[in-house]
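new request in #modeling-help
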Amino acid sequence: MSGLPSNAYTPDSKLTSALIASGVTFALAFAIMGMKLQGGLSPTLEAASTQTYVLIFTATALVFLFQMTREKISAFFSFIPWPRLPRYSTAHLSQSKRDQREKVVTLLFVIAALIWPFIVSRGTVDLATLVLIYVMLGLGLNIVVGLAGLLDLGYVAFYAVGAYSYALLNQYFGLSFWVCLPIAGLLAASFGFILGFPVLRLRGDYLAIVTLGFGEIIRILLNNWTQLTGGPNGIGGIPKPALFNLEFGRRAKEAGNQPFHEFFGIDYDTGYKVIFLYILAILLVLATLFVIRRLTRMPIGRAWEALREDEIACRSLGLNRTIIKLSAFTLGASFAGFAGAFFSARQGFISPESFSFIESAIILAIVVLGGMGSQLGIILAAVAMTVLPELAREFAEYRMLMFGLMMVLMMIWRPQGLLPMKRPQMELENV
Amino acid sequence: MSESLLYFVQQLLNGLTMGSAYALIAIGYTMVYGIIGMINFAHGEIYMISTYISFIAIAGLMMLGITWLPLLLILALIVAIAVASTFGWAVERVAYRPLRGGNRLIPLISAIGMSIVLQNYVALGQNNRDVAMPQLVKGGWLFGAEQGFEVSLSYMQLMIFVVTLIAMAILTLFISKSRTGRACRAVAQDMKMANLLGIDTNRVISMTFVIGAALAAVAGLLLGLYYGVANPFIGFIAGLKAFTAAVLGGIGSIPGAMLGGLILGTSESMTAAYLSTEYKDVVSFGLLVVILLFRPTGLLGKPEVEKI
């Protein structure tokens, strides 16, 4: 019925497969789109709009045409080369020169990232801040999934722990953002540690379902522990972070603080707040990048990757897998905690809805799309996964549909990720 | 029988009803995992689509004037199985087959993407609000009224048990006796070898998706009528429960999925009855963690032997 071998592609079998494909398309489109169900005591069916029927037939015809001309299309596309990134070789330079050049490039990027928000619109800067949050989450999850090879489907739980620890500590004890940021990281890390303990014995997909369950448990707890967390209504009025004792609101909320615009004697503008949050996010991401870069070069980072490649070999070399796995879980979780605290400060309002499974899926998609372990790839993937749905906002109801399709197509198009990880390597000089 | 015992019996009946439906969905997960080792995240959406299709079929048939209940249900079941199988087949063909053989995470992300697509596709075609159906299978047995607590076993619940049992029996016979079933087992055991021996593995994998989707369609019709409402987002949580059931019983093992479903359904209804309704999901995931702690490959799963 289905598995037409691709090597025996006679015109006859081509027609059959095209007919089957378009028939299936028609059936699947018509079954869901063709009739609108009106529920109630006596359910009825209504015909869909003419536009929908035209759409269904167009889709069927398109699939038929595509199947008939498939080889020609793929032959045509193979003429267009995949745009290669310019291969800039630094192999001829000495190690110190290479390091120096890398430093200059990084510095230029950072300066560009810091100047850029003053030129573009406020909405864009705000979106960029959101991208940076996802970069941080992606980098954190990358430790667990990309480097240590442990499939974590409940990463959003740690993000939620971070966000709620700032919101709650501020609400009940009036602690400021700067005090809460490390606490949020520590709390998330300890949750990672607690989760890590029981699940270390599990392998692969058993680990995935337990972490997924853990994420759901945290969300259900936040939803139902109404006295503490406000339940589904969430927590509002979370203050924005202050720069030393300068606040970015119109008036200072805390005693001893001064509004930013008064201190500098300039007019009040909400734009300052947005830019300040953006710069804060940049600093957090830079710190994360720096720490993780260092970690991957430390023995523990090497051990994570070794464990991912071959667990038995690691154990026979005397590596303690409990410590290695636990450290990956704990460190990965702590970055989600920082990101969570920043997220709740930026939003000013959090509810369990922000921490559903779909967030975990998006973060995981960022890591996989980025190329599993590559930091630059993760940044690119975070931009793609955040900005593209934002651009599709005008398609309103088609937005999520397109987002899902994008996830599927990107996996088919580039299964190895945008920028697969390159192993840090050193070449002998003057050989 | 005392009052509290009757209460317990009632909860047990409710739990087993839910559990047998979970088991039907769980088989789809476990078979796919057993053969290609991937978590088919879009499977819960197939269940959701089947609920919609069976509702649409019932409404359509009622408009055509078919009101004799057995005929109505059987026709709706046939339509739901046909459409759901087509969906299962198409999803595998479009989103998973091009990715086979690479990193395990790639098909997982693709499956999550597919699940988002299907959810929003149904929301687009049928709008995203609850759609209600009338109670078609009415009545039931009541007993124990003179002992203080009336236990009810509705015909709907009975139908769920019976249909699930029949579906499981057919599946077991199919897997153990038929040629295709034997091919399925061979591919699950060693895909490369099965391929060398002339089994069309692509066809077997497609078949697995079709069988899983057909069983999810049975669950979709039964649970849809049992609850009487549906919306495009019921697939996620049902899929999550069913997957938990599959892992609980030992993923890859069909009897394990059945056992896992029954345990999960019962524990859930017991928690809801004796502890709290809000935390029933917490207890089922907690149960999963505890069972996996003592049996890391599930109740009936075979322990993996590592060979170097």
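bot summary: The CA atoms of residues 44 and 239 of chain B lie 4 Å apart.
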